[in-house]
Amino acid sequence: LKSFARIPTAMKEAAALMKDFEPDLVLGVGGYASGPVLLAASLSGRPTALLEQNAYVGMTNRILARFVDRAYIAFEQTGEVFGASKSRLTGNPVRQEFVEHARLALADPEGFESRARTVLVLGGSQGARKLNQDLPRALALAGVADRSLEVVHQTGDAMREEVEAIYRELGIRARVVTFIDEIARAYASAALVVARAGATTLAELCAIGRPSILIPFPFAADDHQAKNAEALQGQGASICVRESELEIDQLASLIGGLLDDPGKRQAMARAAREHGRPDAAAAIVDDMMGWIGGVDPSGESTPVPEIDPPSGMHYSGLAMSPTLRLGGPEVALGAAAHRPRRPVVVDGTVWE
User: Is the terminal CB of the chain with fewer CB neighbours within 10 Å at N or C?
Assistant: First the structure.
């Protein structure tokens, strides 16, 4: 009720922001903060877009679906909420280091798999207590100590020493850390990943293409993590285990079975890579730049590619790679012409 009571004030502030900043395009990334700003932008006639990162569209984005001009989505099924004409299946942006590792995985998938010699456990920055306590014991029952594998377990601050002691007691070679700085390298080195099912985790997991067991956070809004995990499981890229159904013996059996079956892991890795969009950030920026002005980062106009697009994809004056997988037919939306276009800054790079 408090949130609803704040909507009039938020809309007034958002309208003032539109007037002061005069944006050419407004992109929302979901959550309650996006609502008033995108609504104010839409009502003022400005181009609007949102990024839907999950397999389930939350309340704010469901409301905004009627108002925004374009939706960049990570799961194909969410296109039903926004409509084919608005939806662009671009994926969820990941950092540049993931793009580099994704290229290596695509260029030499067999070599990539042969160099994966760890089990990566992501217990979350806040420390997922059940994962942190149960995973070491499940790994012990799966016989990880007898394999030439190292466990890399990210625990969060609160549980690092406790988890480290558990691994030491179980005789498992493990690196227990509160945070992983080179997370892309950690994914790339993993024969198997066990993690939660947040949107960013899945985008990173699939960008590189790693087999995984996903244990969704049970209290996530609208149970969206479970829906994310189930969507990936349906594509053959992961195995979803709900925390309420988690038993150490069952988890050990799943882990052991996957570690004993490299063919199964490779098939899951391929399925993950098919879902992954390591070029999502570039695809979204290219689409927006073409939409509001038709200019690439070098400042040159962007012609339509001379090659024919794949079946089901149509160009409309945007210089997009034919490998960019869109959620529906391309629809030409008018460029933002209400005032001269200013430079756009994305991740520190100026797009003139």
Answer: N
Torsion sign, CA atoms 81, 86, 92, 98: positive
Distance, in Å, from the CA atom of 103 to the CA atom of 101, rounded to the nearest integer, reads 5
- Contacts of 287 by beta carbon, 8 Å cutoff, 6+ apart: 70, 72, 88, 90, 318, 320
- Does this model's pTM top 0.90? My answer is no
Q: How is domain 96-275 classified at the CATH fold level?
A: Rossmann fold (3.40.50)
| Phi, psi of 350, deg, nearest 5 | -90, 120
pLDDT, tens digit (0-9, with 9 covering 90-100), for 118-165: 999 998 666 578 889 999 999 999 999 999 899 999 998 888 999 999
| 3-state secondary structure at position 59 | helix
CB atoms within 10 A of CB 189: 18
Helices (H), the chain: 2-5, 7-21, 34-43, 59-64, 79-82, 96-107, 109-114, 129-141, 160-170, 183-188, 199-208, 224-234, 248-259, 262-275, 280-292
pLDDT at res. 324: 37
Angle between helices 248-259 and 129-141 (to 10 degrees): 60
Domain segments of the chain as ranges: 2-92+278-351, 96-275
What is the full DSSP assignment across 111-175? HHHHT--EEEEE-TTTT-HHHHHHHHHHHHHTTGGGTT-EEEEE--STTHHHHHHHHHHHT--EE
The closest of 80, 82, 93 to 48, measured between CA atoms, is 82
CATH assignment, 2-92+278-351? 3.40.50
